[in-house]
Amino acid sequence: MSAFRSIASVVRARLLAVVALAFVAISWGVMGTRAIAQSPSISHTIPAALISGQPTDVVFYGGGLAAPTGVWWSMPTEAALTPALEKNGTEAGQVSYRVTVPPTVPVGIYGLRLATGQGISNVRLVMVDDLPSALDNSSNKTIATAQELALPSAVDGACEAESFDYYKFQGVAGQRVTAEVVARRLGYPLDPVLRLLDASGRELAYSDDAPGIGADCRLAYTLPAAGTYYFELRDIRYQGGGTHRYRLRLGNFPLSVTAYPLGGRRGSGAKVELAGYSTEELPSFTVPIPSDGSADRLAIAARFPRGQGSAMVNLATDGLTEQIEFEPNDTPETAAPLVLPSALNGRFDVPKDRDYYQFEAKQGQRWIFTGKTRSLGSPSDLYLRMLKADGGQVAEAEDTAGDEGVLDFTAPADGVYRLLVEDLLRRGGPEYVYRIEAEPYRAGFALAVEAEKLEAPKAGVFVAKVTCARRDYNGPITLSVQGAPEGLTLAGNTIAEGGKDTVLRVTLPASLEPGLCANIRIAGQAKIGEADFRTVASTLVPLKAAFNGWAYPPANLDGLIGLGVGPVFAEFFQISAPATTVPLPQIVATNSFKVAANRLNKFDDKIDLAVEGLPPGVTAKAAAIEKGKPDATIELSGPLAMAEGDYPFRVTAAATFQNQPQRAAIENLVLRVVKPIQLAATPAGPLAAGGKQTIGVKLTRFGDANGPVTIRFRSLPPGITGPAEVTVPEGQNDVALELAAAADAYAGKAALALTATTKVKDRAISLESDPVTLEITRP
After folding, report:
1. Three-class SS string for 515-538?
2. At 165, is the pLDDT very low, low, confident or very high (cuts 50, 70, 90)?
3. Fewest Cβ atoms closer than 10 Å to its Cβ: which of 33, 305, 412, 467?
């Protein structure tokens, strides 16, 4: 374990508090990156445990579970859809898998996820057990209707509101019965209370919130006589419902959930004993600890030689030298020597026990002492104090909230110092064990992510807000994604110098198909001094939320983020222009046109516009189509004397909806450079010989080309007369010119064209209309 892994907990409490507030306000990644489709979700499984070494048919309950593409487990398994089940894999509310766990997987609590073509599910907890499973029959609400069980057994059930669940069994005199309720440790909201009753209903044993397992409970009792006995189970608050689930384990197994010592060095064999209640028959045993440094927890299981069922225990693993407490060390004068760095393992044997450890330090040396207790099953609430040789206090740390006690000590002078360790409430007993990892201080940072799963459409984007808490390092932090398929494109993957967070945007390659079931980690790296510093972002806050506030989710799930891929994200806007040709008048040199948006799938946000491919010298001011607006105006400007002609260009649009980008374009647009005034003529009808007819003339003005315009006929057919010139007044655009035909005018069709002169911005210009056909007839 790197030196920073333990000192990171100094800043973790502050970091996780910030993340917890942000997690309530913003649910990045989980929040609807694919709202149009339903990602799978798992509410619970039946049974709640897999039996190691044998196939187990596990039914997943929840939503969006049809057409699963895979299941991920945090332990080795072989899994496939349960065969010969009608409609299995086609129903949204449930799906069944046949799962085999190797016998080498110890009893414990593990994670799982399920993926479909719509995305990936939330993480759910499941046990690996060595007790046979039974189901609550739902009719066991009174002692008279108690469900009978044959011990050993484990029953999966759910407590109803303002109700009890009763189970009965037949016991013999002297039989030792162990009971354990696993509910909060599986992430369910149930806060169980368990009572053992005799046949008359008299209470023999009671348990609520057993030390070391939080809100869960456990008890052991030796039966005084043969007969019928009952277990009564309810929620302490009388709450209940389909989510208030539990696994009641019954047999004869150790009740300890912690070991002593609490950890061992990687690559060694750690000799441990189970610590605490109901372990008297268990001898110490040696646990081989793998040299692989990928995890800092090792799950082990222990059972009585002739017992039924196993205890769930976790050991801490690292690369430190292990030290064991030796009594007496409960006074400053008997302080035990402490070698630094090391991992110190101790125990408060009796109430009010105090343990002193002594070491020498040079002035300015800085050490971090990190306590580990409750996350490893010990009920100890550590209170650490650093004392000088004369007894004066230098520093202190208390085990509070999720932090298990971290003492940051800098030696003020050369000399002898003593570490005083005690339980905050002065409790003691065999189960009150502790572990303190002492390491040199190192500058660095801790990272946290606000989601335990991330999803993106095919070739789409997922986002993750990454927050950092710095420790004497203020430089940039570079983020990367570990364990992901190749081809990801990252943006926002740097926390800037002095920054506290960033929004990481990751674009998936098109090669990743819907239905992917993968897990990733988000890591941070920085150069601090001459050393590279690396750490993985924690997901502890969203895991606690997912597991109803369980303070210490399985350590191997922290930092592990489910990655799912859903269908292609639906198109959410289109753009269009009223005409494909956009005029740009000379001299005026400006014009504008509109781009309209067709919004789809409830998209209403801003659409950014850009103009591409304009000829040199022509620029565009492209305003966005603002939120809720139907269109926007694009303004063009260019050189005053640009040559007439057609120039192709395009308009592109970009927007983001539910974190997904979309681009669109209007292709084949034409920029037409024209005179600042355009002239068009339209005959009113045929001109009869000897008669009169009018020619309608229309001016199209651009910009401020509003001055008077003088119009002339370029040429008239023989026998046709008209005005020599007509001046169209300033601001007027329409005029009628009268033509007259001589009686002997030639009958037929003749081309007719007009010319015009004017000034625009003090520049003289001339223009002409397109030829029109004038028909001359005889009466």
Report:
1. CCEEEEEEEEEEEECCEEEEEECE
2. very high
3. 305
